[in-house]
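User: Sequence recovery, please. Input:
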């Protein structure tokens, strides 16, 4: 029997608070020995103590929401490792491990990433995508998730399919985030040419409760993206998971240069632009989340005065 959070994320935001999410998972897994080309999600079964410890570290750092180790957990992604028959088992374990770490102290957010298949190219049918997303989401709801984050998307059709699958098959709150890159003209677009304002109405219509952006940019570059989302969605909660800056290659290794203090310093501008939930993506650590939590607590206290 899993103890879920009784108060929804939306209710907390409606009460006026800014919330703090967690940071990168892949960074942690690789530090613990995950090798390139290996399946991160298989560690939910083979190295559960490591996966649970990641969630525990972020909760100890001050995260009020913690994701699951399931970003590549769709049957399509798992097929690359010959693990598609274990999709439900792997995803249920992912949510359960984060739930065990969170107890009733933090929301567990089921991470759902893109499948790598393109409807436009005929790689997959919409029904096949729908079934895959529904399979993943229902397994994680069974594992104790409170919500899901359909994240790092670029294709609006795939994202809408994912949102609809979760909405129609679970009771999870639905967060959906896209990754944008800055063009030479200074605009922000996905690799499919979609801008921040373009995602708002379709995602809300499909059933998303919270929208946002993750990855692809450091905190400073996220500010105009959040502002554009907020202009198109005046009342919808918005989440931002920024990278720890833009990666810099040092001796053949990508290093993310933003320090915890750097990311925390951008929190007020992100909130002013319209963010309701702030967390981290690539390169962020529990130290980054601790710094962000301190900055957010200060902002929340200031709002009460």
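Assistant: Recovered sequence (305 residues):
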């Amino acid at each position: 029997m899993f103890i879920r959070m009784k108060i929804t994320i939306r209710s907390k935001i409606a009460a006026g608070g800014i919330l703090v999410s967690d940071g990168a998972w892949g960074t942690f897994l690789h530090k613990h020995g995950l090798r390139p080309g290996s399946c991160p999600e298989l560690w939910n079964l083979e190295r559960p103590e490591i996966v649970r410890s990641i969630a525990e570290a972020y909760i100890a750092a001050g995260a009020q929401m913690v994701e699951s180790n399931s970003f590549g957990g769709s049957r399509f992604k798992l097929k690359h490792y010959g693990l598609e028959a274990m999709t439900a088992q792997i995803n249920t374990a992912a949510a359960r491990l984060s739930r065990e770490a969170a107890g009733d102290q933090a929301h567990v957010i089921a991470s759902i990433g893109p499948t790598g298949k393109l409807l436009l190219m005929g790689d997959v049918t919409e029904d096949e995508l729908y079934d895959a997303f529904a399979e993943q989401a229902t397994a994680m709801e069974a594992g104790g998730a409170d919500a899901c984050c359909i994240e790092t998307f670029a294709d609006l059709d795939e994202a809408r399919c994912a949102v609809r699958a979760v909405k129609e098959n679970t009771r999870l709150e639905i967060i959906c985030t896209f990754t944008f890159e800055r063009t030479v003209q200074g605009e922000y677009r996905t690799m499919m040419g979609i801008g921040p304002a373009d995602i708002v109405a379709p995602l809300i219509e499909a059933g998303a409760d919270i929208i946002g952006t993750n990855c692809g940019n450091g905190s400073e570059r996220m500010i105009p993206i959040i502002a554009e989302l907020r202009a198109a969605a005046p009342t919808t909660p918005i989440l931002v998971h920024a990278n720890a800056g833009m990666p810099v290659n040092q001796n053949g290794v990508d290093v993310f240069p933003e320090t915890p203090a750097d990311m925390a310093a951008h929190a007020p501008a992100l909130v002013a632009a319209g963010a309701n939930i702030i967390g981290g993506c690539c390169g962020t650590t529990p130290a980054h989340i601790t710094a962000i939590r301190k900055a957010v607590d200060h902002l929340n206290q200031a709002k009460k005065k």
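The mean pLDDT is 96.
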